Here is the input.
Amino acid sequence: MMFTLKAEPRSEDLKPKQLRRKGIVPGVLFGKNLEESLKIQLPQGEASRFLKSGFTGRKIDLVIGRKKYSALLKQATYRTVTGEIEHLNFQTLLEGEPVSSTIKIMLLNKDKVSGIVQQALSEIPYRALPEHLIESVEIDLKGMDVGTNIMLSDLDIANNSDIEIQLPPDTLVLSITESRKTVEIPEQEVMESEGQEAESRGAETESQPQTE
Here is the structure.
């Protein structure tokens, strides 16, 4: 299955800020097979649909006007305050030429772990041919105990000969540590401690010289 994203050549009459006000997302397509980068635009709804499709890290058909390109999303930026899509960067894909991308790490059943999950790595940089691009990898945490450490070499993709991972095999992906608990002091110890403090204050008062 191939995802098709439709866009149009960007209007030179309006600046990117003006386009966004009209509900249009600006973008650009670049690549070795292009004489120059192509400025594009697409509706906010179309851009949102694509970013939620699960194809953001895979090969897609990018249709610009009447032309179709094999492309990969390289970067998506968002507005800080509103979270709206600000800009999309795409790279053309050429048959037989590897491309750099990242694999998202998705954690499943995180809420079923008794300890604290400390994720050290959220994306895995790698290189692969266009037909071997990967969107994400899932790690099921169900049944994992405190003290568990998962390294990059523990993941199935570490043995995938179709991709070249750009990190050492011993890179830490996540660890599960013990939950922090509040230390409760027995009520009797608290009462004894308060009594000792009262006695200490009384002794200090008696030892002070009397003033006339």
